Queue: 3 jobs
Job 1
Amino acid sequence: METILQLKNISQQFGERKILNHIEFDINKGEIFGLLGPSGAGKTTLVKMMTGTLVPTAGEVFMNGEKLPSLQQMSQYGFMAQSDALYQELTASENLDFFGSLYKMSKTYRKQRIQEVMEMVDLSEHLHQTVETYSGGMKRRLSLAAALIHEPELIILDEPTVGIDPVLRQSIWEELKRLKDRGVTIVVTTHVMDEAEKCDRLALLREGEVIALDTPEQLKETVGVSSIEDVFLHYGGGVR
Ligand SMILES: Nc1ncnc2c1ncn2[C@@H]1O[C@H](COP(=O)(O)OP(=O)(O)OP(=O)(O)O)[C@@H](O)[C@H]1O
């Protein structure tokens, strides 16, 4: 199996405080990889290192065999942060056009992709509306569209469905599955159990350590329980 991301013995500390300890795993091309853990476990810190925006105190991250941070590799992924980085006073179309220009996409290609990604997230009818008139859920979906504008081979989503109702959450997951079917690799952080179940593989993170990593089915089978929540409890930690 081909790997897209390799985390080699990653540790991170801020001052004296150790946030992540000796994290080591690979992410395969075309999989949906979940990072599940309670608030403060280090999920956001870890995904920042996967994108090269934060350099680990120790260890190395490689994307497509190239050590991060790398400008070349940084144009290959899309990142959706926890809070939406959208310009409120601009329309959805203007926002996406701006993000597209950051990736140096041509005007014609931007125009085409804006139509495509807005369709994907079911916002085509609201293309020319300013973002300030959007609901919270619409903003999240527009952020997802922005992360996808340049057709990245890897997308990293930090709690993409926080504050989103179950129906929309479902539609975002359907979109993620469609992307996966097209060969896109997806890394997603969550603390929602039913989302964790939808991942191909899952790393359980607690206090800066990976306490287990496998497919959801295998994690449950190994421990002999029927839910991921119980797997977490088995390893000595709740999820909230
Ligand atoms: N720049 C920083 N300086 C100092 N401490 C930090 C910094 N960034 C994160 N931390 C600490 O690192 C720990 C892990 O934070 P992180 O945001 O990675 O957790 P998380 O699992 O993503 O949590 P959440 O689900 O709440 O976002 C927290 O205790 C946080 O306070």
Job 2
Amino acid sequence: MAEGQFLFSKELDVAVRVVHLACALCQRVQNSLLSSNGSQVNSKDDDSLVTVADYSVQAVVSRILSEYFGSQNLSIVAEEDAQTLSKSDLLQEVVNTVNESISEAPKFGLKISNVPVGPSQVIEAIGRCSSSGGPKGRHWVLDPVDGTLGFVRGNQYAVALALIEEGRVVLGVLGCPNYPVKKGLVNHHHQLTSEISSASPDMWDKGCVMYAKRGAGKAWMQPLIHGELKLDSFESARSIRVSSVKDPALATLCEPVEKANTSHSFTEGVAHSAGLRKKPLRVYSMVKYAAIARGDAEIYMRFARAGYKEKIWDHAAGVLIVQEAGGVVTDAGGRPLDFSRGIYLEGLDRGIMACSGAVLHEKIIGAVDSSWECSLL
Ligand SMILES: Nc1ncnc2c1ncn2[C@@H]1O[C@H](COP(=O)(O)O)[C@@H](OP(=O)(O)O)[C@H]1O
Ligand SMILES: [Mg+2]
């Protein structure tokens, strides 16, 4: 048996279970939010949104990782900030949501003390996630709700948890509660199937959790569990693989929905010059990486405005899953993304591109270079 097989086994097991638990939490909050006119949403100082789900997932993940791996030397890099929550009118609802989620942890095979927590413990759990990562040691990286805008709009979002060791991503887990395992991202009419999937007796119609371990050469997908089912083993996991399409004319490009987060006009020019013919799929969150890893799309491009610094929690889990599923992820200069330099992807050359294989990747890199000179980016 390969020596690396057992490396990070416990970490992966806990991370997958905790992401399942977090997805269940998010689904409840998203349902209640959509029926209550957004009373569970605040704006942050940078005008982005934060919800009860963002804070609650961060608190639950922090408590469970501390329980399993000890709080002493635990380093967690995550998006939400305890001080902002302590002043927010969402605090009580967050406390209730955290307690509700922790009480169902056994269903996900997680053991954690079920004594209800109060506001100060929730704030402490969130505050524990203020590590800034770096090149040495082990760091968990969490985006509790990636694509918060998609989340509040009843659309796609993801829960993303990764483990970085000595500056390299070694585990990636991505929960995609509105990405049905069976139906995929688009229907027969090429329309996004992003609305919340309706109740169905078939578990493969539900959202999914994907995961990968560095060096395994494989990535996996499981359906979310619902109702009285328990997550006892990982038998329901199937391996996923990137698409084998090499012809740009047949390739699908994924990109952010928000024009503030990428230059749609630049990527349109690149796509045209590389010979892409299909309409791009605009999708919120790291579900774009999931779509590449599953073979539902071939290319993900992201060109943020000059001066914006990409954060590691928006990429770590997705990048590893795409790579282990057979894809290639680099910056626009063809270099690997550097997760070793703190909370930002420092030194990123222009933009990010994830492709299903080397042939398309090379064509896209070439098209970026030829389009760059004429662009105003
Ligand atoms: N100006 C900007 N350019 C690029 N990305 C941005 C941005 N402002 C915010 N983001 C990031 O884009 C993420 C959403 O990605 P996408 O556009 O692919 O759906 C946000 O994650 P959160 O929703 O977790 O805050 C946020 O971190
Ligand atoms: Mg994010």
Job 3
Amino acid sequence: MKLLVKAPAKINLSLDVLHKRPDGYHEVEMIMTTIDLADRLELSHSDDGQIRIVSQNRYVPDDQRNLAYQAAQLLKDRFQVKEGVTIAIEKTIPVAAGLAGGSSDAAAALRGLNKLWNLGLSLDELAGLGAEIGSDVSFCVYGGTALATGRGEQIEKLPAPPTCWVILAKPFIGVSTADVYRKLELPAANRPDIQRMIEAISSNDYHAVCRNVGNVLEDVTLKHHPEVAQIKDQMKRFGADAVLMSGSGPTVFGLVRHDSRLNRIYNGLRGFCDQVFAVRMLGERHLE
Ligand SMILES: C[C@@](CO)(OP(=O)(O)O)[C@H](O)COP(=O)(O)OP(=O)(O)OC[C@H]1O[C@@H](n2ccc(N)nc2=O)[C@H](O)[C@@H]1O
Ligand SMILES: Nc1ncnc2c1ncn2[C@@H]1O[C@H](COP(=O)(O)OP(=O)(O)O)[C@@H](O)[C@H]1O
């Protein structure tokens, strides 16, 4: 038996860090939303009890370091599953980019294996298991738009943001999330107003969303990678309504409503950047 599962990327429309916790993680408040840029996982049943990862992308680990592998292992251990699975990952989301590609693959594996292995778990139970794999996995289990608090694993659903295009540009570098949190100096300057962003989304006010994007991790990554600042400047110059780095970076996203400006920004950035995408937000929960 085979099952296909989609694993969409996320962007952080706003990201605030409150303080460092005794467990080493940081207490965050983030507005996250899934976008129409997705990996595809094909899950195939195997009788020998083994977990196998297959991917053409050389940056994707094919062993227990893979977050989708960890998701399968966690379900096997917790629910005494005897069956095995081969997880073929068709990678579209850039790796180590601040777009939660690995976390979304893990979340898709949890959702898919719940069906393949007939575990009958609820989405909330899967999100709880996801938090054991990584801070962003719980959000990715639900998808859509949400306020994430705690270390990122406590999720409150929000309505869909106003309709617009999201242009993503990823420079040639990759960034380590742990490194960025380690280098963050608190209290951070330029903190976003999370409550205002929630109001902007709830009242479907595009211009207020654009005014309120913000990410306290941005300054850390910009300081060490000037190419990210260059991409931000270019996106602004080409006419994006709002420009922000996603998560720990280095991917920069721009919001725009008009198709003519979308084309200008997209064409202007290609050639300058490793990868450029023009996508839509998925809005509300989108699960298969
Ligand atoms: C920054 C964000 C924003 O959405 O995303 P990415 O840029 O990775 O996509 C997340 O907070 C990343 O979440 P995720 O990538 O799942 O992090 P984890 O695997 O749980 O943790 C990786 C490392 O980041 C640090 N970390 C992570 C989350 C958090 N709230 N505080 C932290 O200090 C810890 O050092 C941890 O060891
Ligand atoms: N399924 C996966 N896809 C991509 N990277 C993965 C995966 N599983 C584990 N990783 C590891 O996680 C690291 C961070 O990857 P990713 O989730 O793409 O980035 P980010 O945390 O910036 O959103 C990668 O360097 C890679 O070694």
